Each structure stands twice: as structure tokens, then as C-alpha cells.
Amino acid sequence: MFITPVEIFxxxxxxxxxxxxxxxxxxxxxxxxDFYKKYNWxxxxxxMIIAAPAVLLHELGHKFVAIFYGLxxxxxxxxFGLGIGILLKLVGSPFLIFIPGYVSIxxxxxxxxxxxxxxxxxxxxxxxxxSYLLLKSKHFSNNTLIILHATKRINMILFFFNMIPIPPxxxxxxxxxxLEFV
Length: 182
What we know:
Radius of gyration: 17 Å
Number of strands: 2
Number of helices: 7
Oligomer: single chain
Low-confidence stretches: none
Mean pLDDT: 89
């Protein structure tokens, strides 16, 4: 089985937590914001549409490539990390640095580990470029344009942040794999 019921629960928990954590980040036009002011759920839903794919596709990319290599891989929600994200939101922190989840992979070689590590940021790069290209057409509603702009921005940040070549970031594993060939 590719994704277990427990992992599905974890994915749902991370999705809702991310929606809440980022619910103040997305700025909608004033008329739309006034209309939905009494419905905080709309802010959470919009944030889930933006943040959840960025994080979950990143992590599932790791998982599915590991499975492709025949390795055991399991997605875990980092409830401690999500708690930090929720706490940072509650205190109004201008920085949101936290780990919402991770994939545990056993027995990967250095090369496999590097490829598996690169796939996560590659998913963010794909979402960043896709939203950038979609924004060029501008044939979307204002709400969709806002979602695409936020998607572009968060995935750009996640791509560069995760490619930092310092442990525990993916970039450190990618660099290790590249140095193996030198």
C-alpha cells in the first residue's frame, strides 16, 4: 500500500494545521475580505489551497521516489513542529519557521538519499514555475490570481530554503550525493 490510513490522517491533520497557520498571510481584495469577514473558515480554506500542496507534494515526492527504489518510507506529521507554527501564529510572529512533517526512509544509499531529497524541492520548483506561467495569462478571477501569486511565492521560498546545504535541509543530502561523485 502506497499510503496507509494512518498517513492519510496525518496528511489531513497537517493540511488543516497549515490552513490555520497561514490563514492571516493571504491578502484578499478588501471587498472579498469584507464579505467573508464573518467566515474565518474561508481564510483557512484559501490557505489550505496554497500551503498544503506546497508541503504535502514536497513530502509525498520524497515518499514515492523512496518507494520506487524499493525502500520503506512513511509520512509523519510533526505535531511538535506544527505546534510551534501555531504558537508563532498566535503570538503574531513575523517569521514562520517550523517543520510540519517529514518522511522516514530506511536504508537508502547516499545517491538514493540525494535523489530522494532533491525530489521534494523539485516539486516546489514545479509548483513555483507552474503558478508563474499561469499568472502570465491573467485570465483568472481576482481570487484565483491571489492564490496563484501566493502559491508562486511560497513555493519559491520553500525551494530555496530546502536547498540550503546544511543539515537537516534537503540541500545537505543533495550536496552529499554530489560530493560522492567528486
